[in-house]
């Protein structure tokens, strides 16, 4: 029998708080402390997981743990975040239900690590394959990029996320990832210009200065010393356990994997450097003649270097820091900025530049990781958002974050109770409504369109006249004085007048997690977040590739006089349209899994204390345990319940033959469990009190001990019998083997004696036979010798006669041949002088000139037929090689010479083309009837006709095309039908790009704006690359109306495909599956051509 593990087996404390009895503040914290002391950092509350950050590594995230939790029920093993991730993934894959995992908690709670664990688990358990692995790697590598630009060191966490992130991971019907979409919320951009004591700016600044090479820093005009930059805090620049240099290399590698091009990465680093330079710009006051103060840049060196990085005119940006232009209808008013206003403008520009760069990074990552397929996708959402924050000094950021958590709490409670109620309805269980605190009144206090705090803050920001933080607080005191969750010392409510814990410049809101005191200082400025239009327009004038994308409002042609929305308005709108909120409100409650992650406040080992109770209450849904406890504390389907407890009843043990529900009813009746302690649903049994469940577990534990004793008894008896039978069998085996050995030894002795007698007898018989055979052989040899001597004598006599007759015949033949030769020479002398010249010429043309005319390096010459022609042979060879220089094939040599000037020592394919003649018309287009239609279309003389491959951008594969080159046009036609696909006039060609490798790829680049360039450039591949490029270059040189064609030889070049530019990159590698050069699409903007090192193109 297989014994399955369960949440209740070997349980330390209570693994699910729903089963905690009694439930109180003390028992809740004591249970968490008991589990934490045994390294059990995860605890369930229904479908919610509580995680206590241990601030040290634990061996609970190994590949073995992944396999242990794979395809297991949620409550089958001890609590773990892998169980939550597996439950969500299996619901998405098997039940076709979209999922959402919510991760929240205070700073330092481990939210970022939890989201990484969820993504790594899903990546480990989903399918495999080249494309799937590529998608998984891109999704995982997006984290280091976002952490570098969006995380920072705080007093509570060395890697604190300073933005909210929601990632949609899209899957196909098999459960394999197809891509993803990332949404970011509320980047803490104020950290760019100012950090609290003991904290750092965003990681990327320190990583760039620590990990970039000296050449890179020189190009970016930066130095490694952190103290050179005003925006970087020095008291915590170095963090123990963080290697900024190594992290910089990791981020660069991650950006390449995600799909960033080299020029894009360089542009991003230039903007980061520009932010550092911007912080070093300082201003000095200068009085004008009219008595007003004006700001001027104190040291223009940093301003100059920043302008050089961004491609901005220094005077334009300097004026934007000194003047502000206000437009109202048709009027423009220019006012000077004092020093404080100039510093505000500088910091606003720095914050906007960095925040917009971060948003562009998220958009660029989404372009690379988005799903390519157009079919319907399954979605798993992972939300990593701020938890509730209560600091000693709470400002606008904490107000916005706590507002977001109020909305989360409202929806979470509603869905938790709704899920519980719907399950009771499905199972036919009676349900009693539970009264719970609805925090909608707090949300209304903050977001009401008329009297909400955010609405009044926006109204105060837009109001003309003197507007300060104090006027905003006065307005709150007037409008919200009677609200039960609003407290202020200066409000009309008299009960707070003597509350000395409430300062005059603060107000307090009673949130669901407790009261929070907010200081109004800075609320107006942070909500305004105003960037002067002069600075936006100055940024738009930059020549940098990214700046114009980041500041579209700076376009003078699209001037918008409408005031930009405030930060509070933007965040309220984003909260209202959160994709995860829409998912939770739209989909059924059981289709989303939520995890709440929380830890104590110290970065050292946690200490449990009573203040921890108030921390626990800040996580949405943790205190909704009472809501679940008001119904039934435990529920389970009939089959697992019967399988677990069937040994408690003799009628159900060991096998129950009927329906599972009837077996459970028999079991509960036999155990005499009171009927009011449980109820039967349609598919589950519901247990009301945890004591009943613990009673069943105790009985099961006792029964298992009895069964273990029985199994041990049976096992020991079986082991003793087995040992006895083994000894008996061993004795029989040993006896059999000994008897066999004795008989074999006796048999070998008899066999040896018999063999010896037989050998002596056979030897005597053999020697006797040998003597007789030797005598017969000697007699035969004597007869043969006598006969041979006689036949030899007869043969020599006959040979002498034959030789004499042959000598006589040869003398007659020699005399006759001499006479005939004399007669022939007399007749031949008459005609030799007349016909000798013509015969020599025909011999030279047919035997020498014709074979070697087209091979310029061929120095071969036939050997002389007779020795007396030695002088004539040498003279004819010299005359022929002098005459061949003026032969009509001289243009061939000129083409070869031009090819040498273009490609020699530049392209690896050139040496193999030297010995090959340039044929030109490889298709014999004028003679082949197959191309008669194409020959009629082309009017000019065809200089080059060959079959090439047109490379497809989508998959890197080639399509065969006929390539025709005339004096005026380049024509591409279909190989099968001969239909013209494209005709490009030579003046429309600007350049040709080829690689330095031994491949046949080349790109024809067209002039922008011409009719030929509508579909973009052509990327082709040919076996006669050298000849095609040479003839193209000669055609462009000889034509009067054509500019000289540029030949670009590089291993990486850009090709324009319609509206997009694609980089074609050539790399060397070993041939795969016996193939040669291969082209493969890596992403939307990269084609990679793999050229084998041993490749040889004809």
UniProtKB/TrEMBL annotation:
What PANTHER family would the database entry show? MYOSIN, UNCONVENTIONAL MYOSIN-IB ISOFORM X1
Q: Which residues form the Myosin motor domain?
A: 12-701
Q: Name one GO biological process term.
A: actin filament-based movement
Q: Single GO cellular component annotation?
A: plasma membrane
| Family matches, as Gene3D superfamilies | 1.10.10.820, 1.20.5.190, 1.20.58.530, 6.20.240.20, Kinesin motor domain, Myosin VI head, motor domain, U50 subdomain
Q: Give the signal sequence positions.
A: none
Q: Which domain of life is it from?
A: Eukaryota
Function, as annotated, reads: Motor protein that may participate in process critical to neuronal development and function such as cell migration, neurite outgrowth and vesicular transport.
**Pfam families with a match to the protein in the record:** IQ, Myosin_head, Myosin_TH1
Location of this chain's protein in the cell: Cytoplasm, Cell cortex
Q: For this protein, what is any one GO molecular function term?
A: ATP binding
Domain (TH1) ranges = 907-1093
List the SUPFAM superfamilies.
P-loop containing nucleoside triphosphate hydrolases
Origin organism is: Neogobius melanostomus
Query: What is the name listed in the Swiss-Prot or TrEMBL entry for this protein?
Result: Unconventional myosin-Ib
In this chain, ATP is annotated as bound at: 105-112
Similarity comment: Belongs to the TRAFAC class myosin-kinesin ATPase superfamily. Myosin family.
InterPro entries, from UniProt? IQ_motif_EF-hand-BS, Kinesin_motor_dom_sf, Myosin_head_motor_dom-like, Myosin_TH1, MYSc_Myo1, P-loop_NTPase
